[in-house]
Specification:
It is built from nine helices and eight strands. With 288 residues, it is an alpha+beta fold.
């Protein structure tokens, strides 16, 4: 990794955002806001008389990989998915205080809020209509069938093998086996899904993976709201109860357990995740 001598503060990021707006010929509707990580900034703009969303991200080689940096642009080619449409994009090199590649992506504006604003995990029930669940199922099935060569470093087979060994330390039963080759959203959680109308947000991390991974991760992040988790299991039962789906569930649960080793388990997911993993490692189907 190359260290980039850039102080990524709000003022510098806003400079990039306004430069992106000028390059794309759109008019800012107000001040933008940085993401929680601080390496992406977004805000509303006027695009041909309509409100749109402008997302701008510098490529900081010391802090990110190129695949996620290009994810939103490359997701623009995906079809039949409930997601914001890519309207335009541009890339340039910002010279100050050091040359840094920057991309600006203009997407359709989503007015509905995330199901869990500012969080990944559900801690209380929410109302998911049959139409919402059907749209989610159709979107993930459409995504799975669209070939890609995108691979994200943290979601590769060898990393999953090391993760499962480190977290569980047990051999996988006969009914658990990955089927690679499906295209999946690799960061699917309740902060990236809107309600009451479904839109799937945040397309930095997507690519070829284990079949059922997106549904599995969403199921695991819903375990703090058991009625919602049950709805998801019903919607994706054929995937989650398949050998590849069970593998994906174990990976997703392990990933979350590792994450809450760094951050507080505010959603109280650990007991449910351990119960899920123990059930699957006994060779049984995921509990509903």
């Amino acid at each position: 990794m190359k260290w980039v001598p850039v102080r990524v503060d709000a003022a510098w990021m806003e400079t990039l955002w306004r430069e992106g707006a000028a390059r794309l010929g759109v008019t800012p509707c107000g001040s933008p806001a940085p993401s929680a990580s601080g390496d992406v900034i977004g805000g509303t703009v006027d695009h041909r008389g309509q409100t749109a969303w402008l997302r701008v991200a510098p490529f900081l080689e010391h802090a990110m990989d190129v695949e996620p940096w290009r994810g939103t642009r490359e997701a623009g080619a995906l079809v039949e998915i409930c997601k914001p449409a890519l309207l335009a994009s541009t890339e340039w090199t910002h010279p100050d205080p050091a040359p840094v590649p920057v991309c600006a992506e203009l997407v359709t504006y989503v007015s509905d809020p995330p199901a869990a604003p500012g969080d990944q995990y559900l801690t209380h029930p929410i109302d998911l209509s049959p139409a919402w669940l059907a749209d989610l199922r159709a979107s993930l099935c459409a995504l799975a069938g669209q070939p890609t060569t995108r691979q994200i470093w943290g979601n590769r087979p060898e990393r999953y093998q090391h993760l499962l060994h480190a977290v569980y330390g047990r051999p996988l039963p006969a009914g658990v086996a990955p089927r690679w080759g499906s295209t999946e959203h690799l960061d699917l959680h309740w902060g990236n899904l809107t309600i009451p109308r479904l839109m799937i947000l945040d397309w930095e991390h997507w690519g070829v993976n284990v079949a059922g991974y997106g549904a599995a991760r969403l199921y695991c992040t819903a375990l703090g709201a058991p009625t919602v988790a049950a709805q998801l299991h019903t919607t994706f039962a054929d995937l989650l109860d398949s050998p590849s789906g069970r593998y994906a569930l174990l990976v997703a649960a392990a990933d979350i357990l590792v994450a809450v080793a760094w951050y507080e388990d505010t959603a109280g997911l650990c007991p449910a995740l351990h119960h899920l993993a123990d059930t699957l490692l006994r060779g049984e189907a995921a509990p509903i």
